[in-house]
Amino acid sequence: MNWWMGLLFVFLILQRLIELGIARSNESWMKEQGAIESGAEHYKWFVLTHSLFFVSLWAEAQWKGLYQLELNIYLFILFVITQLLRIWCIASLGRFWNTKIIILPGANLVRKGPYRFIKHPNYLVVLLELIVIPLMFHTYITAIMFPFLHLLLLRVRIPEEERALGELEKGQ
For position 123, which CATH number holds? Predict the structure, then answer.
């Protein structure tokens, strides 16, 4: 891996670790308020898939010996846009943002930011990242495999989240 790939890789790992810290803090706060977790049985598959994404990205780049790649400015711009969208999603949900499905009875559904336009914008952002990042690294196997796995997981996750959110709406 060349310098910009290594730098970007480290940035992504640090970003995810910071986000996990935010998620843990939000989870603690929500549970102190009486929040309930839903869909915990599939969460481990998200953790495994997203962890393996970084392993695959690194391993495929090393396997291909990608040391002289130029940074594709167009893909980098797309990457920056996905990061801005990611921040917008997290900021819009505030204390309610989490990597788990945690519902706080009595809370109002967030309908601001990107949530005004679509129900699950963060999942779309993650899907775009799982395509754009490997394309920047020229790791095409990763670019095909992990968006597919993400979509499979969303077939379980979104209905579970919709069910939990539906119960929240009923309680209002």
Answer: 1.20.120.1630
